[in-house]
Every structure is written in C-alpha cells, then in structure tokens.
Amino acid sequence: MRLSDASAAISKRWVRIAHSISAKLVLLLVAQMALVFGFLGYLNIRLQREQLEKSTLASAERLSDVIKRSASYYMLRNQRDGLYHIIREIANEPGMVRVRIINQQGRISFSSDPAEIGTFVNKRAEACYGCHSQAEPLTRLNRPDRFRTYRLASGHRVLGIINPIENSAECSSASCHVHPASMKVLGVLDTDLSLATADASVADATRRMVFYTLFAIAVISSLSVIFVWRVVNRPLKTLEKGTERLASGDLGFQLDVRSHDEIADLARSFNTMSRELKDAREEVTEWGRTLEERVRQKTEELNRAHEQMLRVEKMASIGKLAAIVAHEINNPLAGILTYAKLLKKQFAKESAGPCVEAMAALDLIESESRRCGEIVKNLLSFARASSMSIESADLNAVVDRCVRLVQHQLELQNIQLHLDLAEGLPRVRCDPAQIEQVILALVMNAIDAMPRGGNLSLRTWRSDNLQEVKIEVKDDGPGIPQEVLSQMFEPFFTTKERGHGLGLGLAISRMIVERHQGRIDVESEVGRGTVFTITLPQEGKAEQAQGCV
Hints:
Layout: H1 3-18, H2 21-76, H3 80-91, E1 96-103, E2 108-111, H4 126-132, E3 147-151, E4 157-166, H5 169-173, E5 185-194, H6 196-247, H7 262-349, H8 355-383, E6 391-393, H9 395-412, E7 415-421, E8 428-430, H10 432-449, E9 454-462, E10 468-475, H11 482-485, H12 505-515, E11 519-525, E12 529-537, H13 541-547
Parallel strand pairs: 7-9
Antiparallel strand pairs: 1-2, 1-5, 3-4, 4-5, 6-8, 9-10, 10-12, 11-12
Helix pairs in contact: 2-3, 2-6, 6-7, 7-8, 9-10, 10-12
C-alpha cells in the first residue's frame, strides 16, 4: 500500500471515530469532569492563597509589634545606637526587606538602609497615603489600611506594614525629648517583608493541585473510555456488523445478546427482524421455484420465436436471392461444367496442336464454374440457419484441431504460430464443428493478411468475471482502417481482391457465435495488426443466460 493510501485510510478512520456516539459520550464526560475538577481546583487554590495571606498578615503584624516594643525601650532611653543595632539585626533576618521609623514630618529617622536616613518621604506615597489622604492626618488606621503590597525590580512581591507609634505618657513626660501630650502620633514603624516564600508556596500548591486535577481527569477519563467502550461502543459495533451481514444477504444472522439494557433490546429486535426476513426469503424462494420453471419454458419459446424472427427479417432478401441462384443458376452451371468435362475428354484423345488452346479455355470454364458453385453454396449456407448439435466441448481441443488443419499452410507462408492455451479452461456447451468453422475462418483471414510471413497468436483464457471463456486470434499484418471496422461483419463486404472472397465469412461467423449466446469483437491498428476475440459463456452459464427474462 502506498503512503498516501495509508494516510488516507488512517484519516478516514479517525474521522469515523470522531463522529461516533462513543467519542461524543467520552468527550462530554471528559468536558464535564474537566469543568468540575477545574472549578474545585480553582476554589481550593484560592482558599489556600487566602489562608496563607491571612497567616502571613498575622505573622507580619506580630513581628511589627515586637519590633515596635523593642524600639520603644531604646527610644524612651534615647539610646540611638541600640535602636540602630536592633533595626539592622532585625532587617538581616530571612524574609525581611526593610525596617524604618518615620517621624510625623515624614523624615526617616531610623532605617536598615543607612542611605535613606534623614531623607523625607512623600506623604502622598503609598506608605503615607493612608493617614495623609485628608487635610488633617488620621491618628488611627483601620487594620486593612495598615497593609500594602508592591513589587521590587526583581519581580518579587513585598508586604509593607504601617504601625503607628503613639505618644504614650512615658514619651510626653521624658526629659530627653519631650513631646506635647496633644500630639497623638509621633511617627510610624514601616516594616517590609518579602512574600517570595509565600508566593513560592502558593505556586507549588497550585502546581500540585493542577497535577492532581489533571491526573484525576486522566484516570477518570480512562475509566470512562473503558466503560463507554464496553457498555456502548462494543454492543453498537456488534449491532453494526450484524446489519452488514444482513445487508450482504446473510439473512437469519443472530446477535449474541447478554445484557438487559436498551441496546440489548435493540439487538433482540434485530434478531427478530433477521429471522422474519429469512422466513420471508424462504417463502419467496419456494414460490419462485415453481415460477422459475414456467418462466424458463416461456423464455425458451420467446427465444426461439425471437431467433426465428430475426433470422427471417435479416435474411429475407438474401434468402430470396439464394433461392433464385440455386434454382436458376445452379442447374445451368452444372450443365456447363458437365459439357466442359466431356469436351476435355474428347480433346484429350486428339493430339493435334489446335486442341491445346481449346483445352486451356475449357480448364478456365471448369474453374470458373466451380467458383460460381462455391458462391452459390456460400449463399445457401448464409441464408439457411442450420441446426446445431450442442454438447460439452473443450475449446482447447477445438483450437488444436484448427491448428493441425492449417499447420502446412503456415509453414508454406513462413508464419510463426504462438499458442497460449489456458490450463483448466472451463468447458463450453456448443456445436464444436461450427465453433471450429469460426476459428478457421478467422485464422485463414489472418493467413491471407500475411502473404510474406509474420506472427499468428492463438490464446484462450477465462474472463475476469469467471463466467465466460475467450478465444483470441491475433496477427501482425497490415491492420484494418477504422472506417472499415464498422462494416467488417456486414454480408458481402470484403477487403480482398475481386475473385478472392464473397464477403460472407465474418457474417456467418458472427451469426454462429451469436447463436451460442456469445459475441465476437475486433480491434485493429493500421501497421500493427488485428485482434479478433470470441467470447462464449462457460458451461452452466449459457443455460442461465437463456433462462433470464
């Protein structure tokens, strides 16, 4: 099989699978499972993310309070070095990005990044906007407003916590840096924590959830495919094969039904239908047996009547001519031939010189009279439909007899004979003598077409439909023009020179073959030769052909 044919077959098979009920059911189940599992996975991931964010926020808030209390101790004692130290140490902990203290004016008083100490922050920035969004700064923030998230240049998310530093009684009464009691907020503690670990945990949980979801979908889809194949596809395939057997003529074919579902009910209905069709066919066959004999008898009568009508219509004119020739010409020709023979005998007794020319003239009269007699004989043979002696015959044996008859003529004309007779050729019911006459006529025409030698091929074989037997007569003579082929089988048409044929050989041959329910075909090409093919029904098929209405 060629690659293109294999690809087309595979493509056709996949198209058929894609349009099957089983594929649609599996696709529907897989789609539903994908939606359900995907939705559940999404909810699970979202809940895990929210839970992790809440836990992270709580931890960050506790850490900010711890830093605030630790820083308060050093601020009350105005121990800036201790405060710087604790801020730097805490900022060096894993997950910490930055720790800084911003006073009420927006100045960064302490920071884990020494470069920004003493600088001012924009009060409209995200870290300050929660309190300074109004003309009068807020002294207390709601808990959600204390948190913010942003991304670093590296792409990692950062959680920022704003923890206000209230003006407590200790601060307002301290001798080192007294703040008025009316000042509610002294500044804020801004703590930034990296969310990279939390995001990685969420991403890992997401990957695991996606993997588990896809794995569950794959497992359940496989189980669904197996289920659909066993419960739906296999019974439907069995039912489809049953319909194909039924369509091919195997009436009465029964399916093996083992389940009790709707498809099994359909299979039982199929079995019932198949049995009823088989019973109906048997009834029709039984009724047809009696009808067949009547039809055969009537067909034989019609064939005989049709054959007789065709022969009468086709040969009416030539029959009349043949009768006239037989009665009006044959007798005078016989008299002429008889007197020519008597004169030859008388002249033969005399040895005088002048009788030699007379003897030559009498020889010519005798030969021409005989030729006219042959013409009359051929006319009568063509006009009369002689009876056939039908028997079972081996066409190879008929061809062998023809070859023996013309073997000497082939050798004289230097014609090479090529025989290709098929072994085990089916027998044919025919009149062997008439079929031999047809083959001889075709062989003699081929010999006449090759006066200077050539190749003659005789071949027999069984046709592809296994109902006919063929005989081929092929020569490599000059060939026949196309405009002449249509007239080859017409009575009195000949391409031979005057006096070398009456033009009845092929017409009689076709008549004989057609009486045997066969046909004769001719193919020719100028310069390459001619091929005649005789086709006859093999034994047993001819009777069937005669019995058809």
